[in-house]
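Aim 2 progress update. The chain analyzed this quarter is reproduced below.
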Amino acid sequence: MTTAPSTDSDTKAVEQLDAVVLGAGVAGLYQLHQLREQGLNVRAFDAAGDVGGTWWWNRYPGARFDSEAYIYQYLFDEKLYTDWSWSEKFPGQPEIERWLHYVTDRLDLRRDITFNTKITSAHFDEDRGRWTVRTDAGHVLDTQFFVSCAGMLSAPLTDQFEGQDSFAGQVVYTSSYPAGGVDVAGKRVGVVGIGATGIQVIQTIAPDVGHLTVFARTPQYVLPMKNPRYGPEEQAAYKARFAELKATIPHTFTGFEYDFEHAWADCTPEQRLEILEETYQDGSLKLWLAGFGEMFFSEEVSEEVSEFVRDKMRERLVDQHLIDVLVPTDYGFGTHRVPLENGYLEVYRQDNVDLIGVKDNPIARIRPEGIELTDGTVVELDVIILATGFDAGTGALTRIDIRGRDGRSLADEWGRDIRTTMGLAKHGYPNLLTTAVPLAPSAALCNMTTCLQQQTEWITRAIRDLRVEGKSVIEPTEQGEDAWVAHHEETAGATIVVNTTSWYLGSNVPGKPRRLLSYIGGVGTYRQLCEKEAADGYPAFERR
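Predicted structure tokens:
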């Protein structure tokens, strides 16, 4: 094998690797483990100070699972699964982070991870068939494979408001919340954003602040969370289901333990209402992910299900102003991310909470004393918490200077059209293998551990097969990529999800090409297509 020079001027010595893994979250940890087990010399890099990915960065008040803890787990090792015990059905961030430390230490992964280090560039050398990867700490890495496990929601949107640096108080983002927390006791706090993150923050800090002002633009359908504690009996019960869960979860539509069980047309109106009520009362995402699948395809069914959820929200909100701002009416239930909440709607009925709708009266700027709206109203604040979302799917990689064959730029290409091959690779970028990027199942409609395990396992198999056959480069063909994009568009176009405006389609990022970022054909179906691709000898890829 031809290698790069052993040194690079003004940097550290060049390190020779078989694979570089970007990220040390759920995907990165498992990918590192698998490639090491294959005998590769591999190193992972993460900008965070420790393992965890999303669960390292998301330290904001109230951060927790909205997938049941016993399915948000690795399923490749039963003992790894059963030797950890969850304290409740939907644990909070500190416990999740401890679990990821447990996995890391159990698999002895830490010795091959470099923390507090950003990958800044990755350039492919076509003559040598290898990547040169550079970091902000001066590392120069010469590697055969560059594997991205950077995450679907890991590129936060920042600096969105004029005058933000002028604020005399404290501004914090939920995406990089201080590990030591923020003192909000007795203070005037403003929260901007009512997506899943904003909701968790709002319901958690409301009892402690002096006064809370919520700036709400897009109303959200919400479902109440029921979060029972787990003692030894409950822990033993879910652990006894390991074989069942491993056999079923990867093959359901969304990678959860439940699946769509009822057909709308086969039910009477009374039966439909009974099913809606039953799944709503489950206290999970079951109404969204195991109610009636027709709500993703039929405007009529969508409207009936949506109205059911609206009625539940109206009953709790009571006040018409709250209803007008917080209850969605212009899109269907489930076509946006559906947050779980615990007393969130009732927060707005507290005397110390104000709700300001900014859809028709947007935030104009941030001033030293607080937030100014377009109509000139100024809300004076001591702390501003920004839950303003992410550049989903593409943002983590477009913020890195990634260049493939002929010097082509991934940021430029995705800036024109968001295309991948099965969300696992990109034509023109040999040996760049990806998880949680567009056109694969991801956070939109998938339990992320289910999808990330499957995607990393496919990448591991593809690398193993390549090496067994004595080849060194794998890259999607143009025809293979065209075929996958066409299939993705046909599948997405059959649903009403593509008619909405949300981060699901990149609508929250000005100028971003519009495309449904997550494959919506089902987790089980996607798995079958990936397995077939490998079994058939990778017909959508060139291997040389």
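Residues 109 and 129 are 27 Å apart (CA to CA). The two ends are 14 Å apart (CA to CA). These observations will guide the mutagenesis experiments scheduled for the next reporting period.
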